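Thread amino acids onto this structure.
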């Protein structure tokens, strides 16, 4: 059995194949975080028919790769970043850090310490939760923007923002059926 440790980043992932009994690195590969390179990584890994993936932070930066591998029938464990840090310090003598060392540390932790947790496939409820979180974030950003606009208008207009300015329809321009009708006597002057 070969353990394939993965150190994920936003734009690249580094995988290192480790022979667990001897703790020897037998190969390494760095890929871009793209579907094309995921396919290259899996093709590279197929040289070891008995394999298990140990992805550092598989619920964070490694989430997409981990779920992609699971969808293709691969066995994946999540390794906490703190655990790989401990192994790196103890086995390499200090805080030396690079992606290949981190990937090997993930594999070592999964095998020796048993700190790896099996990653389960996500279903549609996870995707819905992500979409709902995004919707909430957008709604909060909109409210924040409307409040900032109100504060600005309060400073620029005598008497503050017009009462017909609302957070729901008053900000759209006249071409969209909304808009703010300012009193005729209001004039803007440079501050």
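Threaded sequence (191 positions):
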């Amino acid at each position: 059995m070969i353990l394939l440790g993965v150190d994920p980043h936003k734009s690249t992932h580094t995988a290192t194949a480790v022979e667990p009994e001897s703790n020897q690195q037998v190969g390494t590969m760095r890929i871009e975080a793209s579907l094309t390179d995921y396919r290259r990584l899996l093709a590279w890994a197929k040289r070891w028919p008995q394999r298990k993936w140990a992805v550092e932070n598989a619920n964070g930066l490694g989430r997409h790769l981990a779920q992609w591998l699971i969808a293709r029938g691969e066995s994946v464990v999540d390794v906490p970043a703190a655990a790989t840090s401990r192994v790196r310090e103890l086995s390499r003598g200090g805080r030396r850090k690079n992606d290949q060392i981190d990937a090997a540390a993930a594999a070592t932790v999964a095998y020796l310490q048993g700190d790896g947790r099996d990653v389960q496939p996500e279903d549609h409820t996870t995707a819905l939760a992500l979409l709902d979180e995004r919707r909430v974030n957008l709604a909060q950003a909109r409210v924040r923007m409307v409040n900032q606009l109100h504060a600005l208008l309060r400073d620029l207009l005598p008497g503050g923002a017009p009462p017909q300015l609302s957070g729901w329809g008053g900000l759209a321009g006249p071409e969209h059926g909304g808009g703010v009708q300012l009193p005729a006597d209001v004039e803007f002057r440079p501050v």
